[in-house]
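Journal club side-thread
Mid-discussion, someone asked how the predicted structure for our own chain would compare to the paper's figures. Pasting it here so we can look after the session.
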Amino acid sequence: MERGKHKMKRRGVYSLNEDHQWDDLGPGHISSSYVKHLQGMCLLVRSDSHDSLILESKINSNTPYQKQQETLIVWSEAESHGMALRFQDAEGCHKIWEDICRVQGKDPSVVITQDLLEEPIDKQLDEVLETNNVFELPNCELSKLEEISDFITSVLASPIHKERLALILENEDYIKNLLQLFHTCEDLRDTTGLHHLYEIIKGILFLNKTALLEILFSAECIMDVVGCLEYDPALAQPKRHREFLTQNARFKEVVPITDRELRQKIHQTYRVQYIHDILLPAPSMYEENFLSTLNTFIFLNKVEIVSMMQDHANFLSEVFAQLRDETTDDDRRRELLFFFKEFCAFSQTLQRSRKDALFKTLTELGILPVLKIVMSMEDLQIRSAATDIFTYLVEYSPSMIREFIMEEAQESEDGNLFINLVIEQMMCDTDPELGGAVHLMGLLRTLLNPENMLATSSKCERSEFLNFFYHHCIHNFIAPLFVTTSEDICEGDNVVGSDKNNTNCLNNYQRAQLLSLIVELLTFCVQHHTYYIKNYILSKDLLRRVLILLNSKHTFLILCALRFMRRMIGLKDELYNCYIIKGNLFEPVVNAFLGNGTRYNMLNSAVIELFEYIRVENIKSLVEHIVEKFYKTLESIEYVQTFKGLKIKYEQEKDRQSQIRRNLHSILYSKILFRSISIVEKKEEKRFKGNSEEGEAIIPPLENDFQDRYKFMETKKTKENENKVDPPKGESSGASKFASSHAAAANGARSLHGSSTVGLMNRPNDEEKDKEDETPPRKRSHLSS
């Protein structure tokens, strides 16, 4: 059933396309009706011209509908697919709005039927409707510069208007005419007009269109654009940027560039980068996307420059040849390195496949041997540029660097390895803040990181490179630590101490910075190189040397040393634990903690966290060592419960061990007793069978009870005495044997493995046989002890 058809002329139905632009679907008549196949109320729009159905949209209960300006209804059919209806009058809009609200159960007084999760995209629709009017730029005349400036500034707030303006500027010579007016204003010294031109050119750049940038940055226009941007109204006097670009900025060709297009592209990129960095103001948070196309323009230019240089057959070869040439002077070498550094920076913009091809070419040309030469030079600028180039290579492919280092080690005879040169540069950094050393330390960490090491069926890069590093390099790396702490270890009592000279060395800020870098990398190695660094720590007593750093006055160095020990303990490796206990290496930590006094600082927190970790993880060997050695010293510290908690853990473990010993004593006693009785029974049974075969009178064994057995033997002995039967010669030994055996049983069975059988007749052969069969009794350990 139709809910009423409102035949009103209107401008049309609008649909938001994939490019986020509104398309006008044409005018028509709108109604709201029930549509059977959609099983619900729908909005229907029929064309004015051919009466065909333009729109059939079901009114969904969860779809947000919004009424704007009394004549507009907007909603979304799907993601990025908006719809809009524009009415001729408010009455017709209100009637359709009532139908929508009725379906959704909303009050028609609302302007939106559901909560929106994001800003409505339909705000652009008004701009589309307005652009149906005539959109014309003011004529490019000197008298209308202010009008042009206001027009362009107003357009920037509207994406639709920006698109229309960009199309007009692109298809006409409007920009070139503006730049002609710039020369006129300069000749007339029309400051006001120049200020308007500054706003106009900046506005055109903010339109963010590649086609317009191509015009502005063309060889014939770019210097005029720079000239317009000199006249910022915020400045009292214009800046002389054109003078700087044409006279001060010099283009140096370290190797002659014969390709004219390449030269022009380099000039253009430099000038555009200058405009971006110097002339244009930093965009606000609302304008941060206005210059995205300019950034892309610079990016693509750099890609093109690198590609053209890479395709140039002899260009890179000539650069490397001059860098390797020993006769090349330092000034020339510096220029070559600056060029190549910039070239590597540009190469970061390449796609992965082209970057792979480029660095493969650089490797074949011998870039790493060249870097080894220049990094060993005295000139600080040359070394700095070489370090930056080395950084690009390490970031691109650490495996390539590791492979070169190991191949060099196999071929080198003098042991002058590239990686040791890098370590030497790090140790000899003259910067008080060690900026270069920090940089090189980061590169070394990247090379030592197992996570970026490759493993193939033919080789394992991790084991090969780490084995190489710990045999050929680590001693150079930790040499400053050994030098600083060499006199602090007393070989006699093997304790940590310090003398005045070394304390002064530890208190030197630059040396402390260097030692902290070394210890930080060693901490990284403890975490990632468990096997290799463990052997080195144990063989060189490395932790003892690191803990000497606790005597420094610099807290950052003390904390580095504590982190190193904490990382070792965190591995819960009993080899490390035994090493720490045997060397009494908690003593310097406790001394540093007590020396800190009542100050609540990072040192205090770090030490408490170390002991708290041991308590929480219940590392038994360390808990026992700490409590037995240091609890009396630390028991007075009550503002944390860490040390009392360690004592509780210690006592709980002692109780547990005591209970285990008691249980073990009981279990072992029962097992040994049962085994001894079983042996006795088996032997008596064997003797019983043997005597039965010979027709002897046998006295059967009684219960498996030593007391019954003893009573039986005593009864037998009494009967023999009553009968006064003298035993044959030699039987006394058997009786003695019997008596001693059962006396032992009566005294607590101290010799449970002894014989308890009795020979009733004197049979020397049997007695000898018994001696051969029986094994000597063993003594049982005293479990009660």
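Post-session note: The CA atoms of residues 344 and 389 lie 7 Å apart.
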